[in-house]
# Entry
Amino acid sequence: MENLKRPWLLSLLVLIVLLSSMLILAFSLNHHPLQQESKQNVNVTEPVAISPEPGKAEFKSFMDYRTISSQTSDQSQLQRFSQTGEYGIRIYNYAYMIAVGSGWGFSVGDYVIILFDQASPIGCVVGDIKSDSDTDKLTHTKDKVNGSIIEFIVQTEKIPKKVQISGSFNSVPIFNHKILAIYAEEMPYD
# Structure
């Protein structure tokens, strides 16, 4: 009879059970062989300052995740554990998925931080390595056509129309900043 006088107690218990269930589900979704394998080989790096051509560090291109053709590749395996998030960008373990040139020395599954000139840094997971034939011949760190340093991995039909038209995520205010540095860190949600 005493518990009926405290309805908030029942609500609190239900909330605790729901939160516990969500944590267990999140833990089980975020632990799989590819993640465990990459955790053992984390290569934390110092921030690498970028000195791109004027006007080029702002351009942030995109590629559709379905262009990853090999079903047995690390890239494809990573996509199986990813989902499409805000702005149509693929998300893995709470981080945006990107493709970068081989010159950065990152591997598929690496967690990297992108530092902007006038915005908060963003956490990203390397979901693909761009072909050397698609990047500059000197450093293999930027797209040879548009100078893009990072390429967001997306579900094309879900990205904003402005991005589809311009070919760059600069039309999204949170990404409309110059990239100052990029570096690898340990995945924060392991």
Residues 47 and 160 are 30 Å apart (CA to CA). The two ends are 44 Å apart (CA to CA). The beta strands are 48-49, 61-64, 83-84, 90-92, 95-101, 111-116, 122-130, 151-154, 179-185. The chain has two domains: 3-30, 37-185.
